[in-house]
Amino acid sequence: MSDLLPQLASLVGERHVVSGETLRDRPQDFWNNVPTPARALVKPGTTSEVSAVLALCNGNGIAVIPEGGRTNLSQATRSDERSILLSLERLDDIETPDEAGLTVVVGAGVVIQTLQERCAASGLRFGLDFGARGSAMIGGALSTNAGGFQALRYGVTRDMVLGLECVLADGTVLSHLIPFRKDNTGYDLKQLFIGSEGTLGVITRATLRLHPAPVTRNTALLSFADFTAVARTLSRLRRDLRGTLSSFEIMWPEFFDFNVEALYGERRPIGSGASFYCLCEAEGFEPDSDGALFEDVISAALGAGDVADAVIAQSSRQRDELWKIREDFEAEQNFFNVMIDFDISLPLKVMDKFVAEVDAALKSEIPASLGLHVLGHLGDGNLHVTTGLPTPEHASSLKDLVYGLIARYQGSISAEHGIGILKRDYLHHSRSPAEIETMRTLKRALDPRNTLNPGKVI
Amino acid sequence: MSDLLPQLASLVGERHVVSGETLRDRPQDFWNNVPTPARALVKPGTTSEVSAVLALCNGNGIAVIPEGGRTNLSQATRSDERSILLSLERLDDIETPDEAGLTVVVGAGVVIQTLQERCAASGLRFGLDFGARGSAMIGGALSTNAGGFQALRYGVTRDMVLGLECVLADGTVLSHLIPFRKDNTGYDLKQLFIGSEGTLGVITRATLRLHPAPVTRNTALLSFADFTAVARTLSRLRRDLRGTLSSFEIMWPEFFDFNVEALYGERRPIGSGASFYCLCEAEGFEPDSDGALFEDVISAALGAGDVADAVIAQSSRQRDELWKIREDFEAEQNFFNVMIDFDISLPLKVMDKFVAEVDAALKSEIPASLGLHVLGHLGDGNLHVTTGLPTPEHASSLKDLVYGLIARYQGSISAEHGIGILKRDYLHHSRSPAEIETMRTLKRALDPRNTLNPGKVI
């Protein structure tokens, strides 16, 4: 189809079609600084334009790869020379939030942090937060069902969606932007498009749930001698902090000590030698009493012998320093020459045993492996496990080893990053042949010409 | 297929196949005391047996109607002479709840109240509660995505599901009984089966989320002069009761006065003449302070002038009396000769106007209509609107009138009761032709022979 580019230009405007050298000069994504291969990058400005672009490409057998902030961790927005990249970045409007109904309608191209700030200005909280907040877009978060730091309180992205508008491969627009929570009018179609990584439809717009914005914030770093004490403390905080617990991030000591050393050297924020460290944060509505309640609950956990040591942040600077231990991965990225990371969910009761077994197996079976960094969102059963190798040699056997153990512990091989290309060949470790075949059936039914993000997920 | 019954008996055991007069003597469901038409009622005891029954029926072109507690409000379990009824009642096991992980694995045949009580015995709360708790089963609640009294705190049934096992029309078993919240391993298949009323698969088992069981319970009946004061008070209670608000049930005065008169005559629990009455309940974890907090927050709402009058239940007997006003529909059922009810969701900001418009339209266009009873779960945007007629004449124009208004206000024609047969012809008031066609595409893909609950939903 030689006149594809002019046709695309006629649909979205010439300046919204990028091709040739300009496109090749753009890195494929945040993680892969390689030229972007694609016939063109198309930036529609409305849902109708998205629909027209899809109808054109679908009719001509041209693959379409939707993209947002391009910080996906599973290569879900990778394109090739024959495909069209479809950026949702121009669908970036935020309607006025409904303060009584606690909802907001947004376009897929809205950056997470922009929405967070817009909501905060109205005394509201959009409950999704993760490291890439400054670049990741709502459409990408919806397509990957992103999780993050506050899922234990506000849920994952799926839990925040009331209504959705999306476009099928053939250009059909499905719009159901309801602002209420209860709706049983036939099949809940939106669920198919949330988390399916752009393979079933292109999300253009959503009605999202909001929450009243808390006005207090209390943060502590806790250390523990054993895992059961960590789990008991999570239960205690969930209960005694009266619903204000918003984060409970666990770090195994190998990662914690590594990052503390890298960031602060000798200036450790808490004593060494513990078996686990947890960063916990509560956000509430009572300026007069939340701080005292937080201290009381932490004191009770210390008194009960569950918490070995505790540091409560006394300033926002100290809070930022504590969060940096959890959020800053620069030293880690430099340390692990060939970095290999796993984003997994596990039943709480086997988590500690699983990590010990991975550690032992790596040491005995992949002697070249460079340590094991484990951290995660304990309240969601979600761990991030990172290791590395001096060279790519053994990478494949290392992955087989860890994915095999995840399967044996009945865990999920992708908690919040999705499958994309990187994990496609491992999907069978978490899903049965019957489930994968059912996914293929759905893909064939909704996208019979395999137009949308082909080769991703399944 | 003349030897169907012996074949079914060979799959599930002879005593688990009911047919002939025994079956006909059984009422079709709780609401329709008519004989049950079907070739047989089959009661498999395991997921494998469900699979075998479905494979047999699907292979022979025989429709299968799944049923649970048979209290469905949209005739979603109606059978006919040619179909097989598939009861899940024998899949009634409850695994030991995981107190640390806050999960439980249950069979589809578990009665809601049985699960509530089993969880309560372990200090846990299963957050689903509605009137039919004593008969409705988990499988039915999942298939209809049931809502109920505590959705504002715990969500609807969909929000309580972590993992699901179900069987496709051809007998394929899809099992993904994960006990954690974060899982992005391909398409979230369970969402297709939740709320699709048995038309896409038969749910056999689920992993459900639990919560710590509250230990305090405080209940109040509030009256209001206007709707904005009701909405403001809901926001206030959500915020100031520190996450303990579990119910906020609104009643318009025509229903409230009617039911108070029917239940208690002159002994009114609260002064008359208000524009709205709300039953609110908080359940918390602090026996020493929750009662005082509840009184303080209600007092503040009175002091602010939003609440006109308030009665706080002083005993469990008084609490039950207050709840009875909301839950007891016996007098209403006797009063409305031909009862016509609507289960709808609406944006909060148009709710009051909608009700006023329905009231005026009924009075002017359907003069035979016998009043308008409105109540609902305000926190979920969900109203139950009931009216009646002396005879079935005008029933169809009354429905057209109300559904037309729901569509005009962009509401949902089914908030929590589903579509079944009763609302199938009205589905287009809430869903577009493109959405309904996409539902049909999914139905054809997963159940190409139209074996599962044919004629329901779409």
Task: Examine the secondary-structure arrangement and name the CATH architecture of the largest domain in chain A.
Answer: 2-Layer Sandwich
Indicate the multimeric state: homodimer
What percentage of amino acids of chain A are in beta strands? 15-25%
Which residues of chain A form runs of ≥5 with pLDDT under 50? none
Structural class of the helices, strands and pairings of chain A? alpha+beta
- End-to-end separation of chain A: 27 Å
Q: With helices defined by DSSP (H or I, 4 residues minimum), what is the helix count of chain A?
A: 15
Portion of residues in helices of chain A?
Answer: 25-40%
Give the C-level CATH assignment of the largest domain in chain A: Alpha Beta
Rg of chain A to the nearest angstrom?
23 Å
Q: Give the CATH topology of the largest domain in chain A.
A: Alpha-Beta Plaits
The beta-strand count of chain A equals 17
Looking across the biggest beta sheet of chain A, what order are the strands in?
Answer: 14-11-13-12-16-17-15
The chain pair forming the largest interface, with residue counts per chain, is: A-B, 83 and 83 residues
Q: How many structural domains of chain A?
A: 4
What average pLDDT do the residues of chain A reach? 96
Most strands sheet of chain A: 7 strands, antiparallel
Overall form of chain A = globular
Commentary on this structure:
2 copies of one chain form a homodimer. Chain A has 458 residues and is of the alpha+beta class. The first copy, chain A, folds into 4 domains: 4-87, 2-Layer Sandwich (Uridine Diphospho-n-acetylenolpyruvylglucosamine Reductase, domain 2), CATH 3.30.43; 103-212, 2-Layer Sandwich (Uridine Diphospho-n-acetylenolpyruvylglucosamine Reductase, domain 3); 216-327, Alpha-Beta Plaits (2-Layer Sandwich); 336-435, Alpha-Beta Plaits (2-Layer Sandwich). Chain A contains 15 helices and 17 strands. Chain A has helices spanning 4-12, 20-24, 47-59, 112-121, 138-144, 151-154, 190-193, 227-240, 253-264, 290-303, 316-327, 330-335, 351-365, 395-408, 433-446; strands at 17-18, 40-42, 64-67, 84-87, 103-107, 124-125, 161-167, 173-176, 202-209, 211-212, 216-224, 245-251, 276-284, 309-312, 338-345, 372-377, 382-389. The first copy, chain A, has a 7-stranded antiparallel sheet, with helices on both faces. In chain A, strands 1-2-4-3 form a 4-stranded mixed sheet. Chain A has a 4-stranded antiparallel sheet with strand order 5-9-7-8. In chain A, helix 13 runs antiparallel to helix 14 (395-408). Chain A is globular, with a radius of gyration of 23 Å. The model of chain A has no long low-confidence stretch (mean pLDDT 96). At the A-B interface, strand 8, helix 8 and helix 15 of A face strand 8, helix 8 and helix 15 of B. Chains A, B: Residues 33-213 form the FAD-binding PCMH-type domain. Chains A, B: InterPro entries: FAD-bd_oxidored_4_C, FAD-bd_PCMH, FAD-bd_PCMH-like_sf, FAD-bd_PCMH_sub1, FAD-bd_PCMH_sub2, FAD-linked_Oxase-like_C, FAD-oxidored/transferase_4, Oxid_FAD_bind_N. Chains A, B: Its cofactor is FAD.
